[in-house]
Amino acid sequence: MQGKLLTEHLSQSELALNKRIPTLGLLSSIFGNENVIIWLKIQFGSVNDYAEQGIGMNDSQLSELSTLVLAEYYYLNAAEICLFIARLKLGKYGQFYGAIGGMKISSALLDYIHERKTDIERAEREQERINREIETDERIKNGITFAQYIELKKQAENGDKNAMEQLKIKH
């Protein structure tokens, strides 16, 4: 799944804002903490295998890291965890020197969270800009000038039923 996410070129905000992808918290409430921790251990364990450092995290360390990540980052969804792991393996958060440890992964996850927040804010600003453009286009398409309004109002006051109807629609 990690490779698939990268080939789709989805942004962090696209993944984070996708309500169809379950969060760690939701998965935990449905399947229980233990099952989510097992899944997280598999994800973090794959870093051990990938890095070929010789000394990786042991089962106890993987369990503790997974438990802490579930407690602290329950709002991340499953795809975001996979994207983080893929980016970690690609060296986006620095190289591993010596043993891979929970602190190195936790530190990299903090960087990921910062990038995520920045990307979500960017996506929200872009959506606001698009909404303003749509609203402006609608006003231009459906609006009338003040001079046109005054003329329409005069026509309505003189009994023009069409003008009266248009004024009802415009308000």
TrEMBL record:
<feature type="coiled-coil region">
    <location>
        <begin position="113"/>
        <end position="140"/>
    </location>
</feature>
<keyword id="KW-0175">Coiled coil</keyword>
<dbReference type="Pfam" id="PF20338">
    <property type="entry name" value="DUF6633"/>
</dbReference>
<protein>
    <submittedName>
        <fullName>Uncharacterized protein</fullName>
    </submittedName>
</protein>
<dbReference type="InterPro" id="IPR046573">
    <property type="entry name" value="DUF6633"/>
</dbReference>
